Amino acid sequence: MGSANKTGSSADRRARIEEMRRAERARERRNRIVTVAASVVVVAGLAVGGVVLLQSQSGDKASAASDDKGSGRFVTGADGVRTWKGTLGRTHTSKTVSYPMEPPVGGDHNPVWQNCNGDVYTKPVNNMNAVHSLEHGAVWVTYDSKAPKADVDALTAKVRKTPYTLMSPVEDQKDPIMLSAWAHQRTVKSASDPAVDAFFAQFVQGSQTPEPGAACTGGLGQ
């Protein structure tokens, strides 16, 4: 009887050991599966991250390209009017726009236009609002501190009686008195220069206007 009990105990022990070994092998298999799955997730995450990074970089490049809408140059005609040869953006933005010319003759601009119904401003106006006025077909008369007072007074009187015009000081411009319309600009010698009337006649609501008939009131005043 003692021998039988001993044999039974040994068999039970071997059975328990084998069961423990099977359990251990099962745990090892599960661990390997978990490890492989985790590796796949990590690799997939890195791949997705790489794609997102590339898309982000591509988007940055695209944004940089879209900001370069003002690239181009002026070509001066026989009449002294300089015409901008290049693309001028027309996107509305609340961000500051850097224009390739001063005063600007077009490009992306603020959603609100500067009032231009014969409005005369004694202080500088925001370029982004004035460009919107040009989009509506206005002529923008600008002058710096070198412009004679008599010319400033005479131009003030002319602008005040002419719809779709505005006037303001611009200290950084290259000449004392300048006239600007969408994609067009010129310098004049004085208020009595015949080129002033010619520019007004051609460009106040002229054929260059991107939005003819759009309002010049109800915008931004000073």
From TrEMBL:
<feature type="transmembrane region" description="Helical">
    <location>
        <begin position="33"/>
        <end position="54"/>
    </location>
</feature>
<dbReference type="Pfam" id="PF11303">
    <property type="entry name" value="DUF3105"/>
</dbReference>
<protein>
    <submittedName>
        <fullName>DUF3105 domain-containing protein</fullName>
    </submittedName>
</protein>
<dbReference type="InterPro" id="IPR021454">
    <property type="entry name" value="DUF3105"/>
</dbReference>
<keyword id="KW-0812">Transmembrane</keyword>
<keyword id="KW-0472">Membrane</keyword>
<keyword id="KW-1133">Transmembrane helix</keyword>
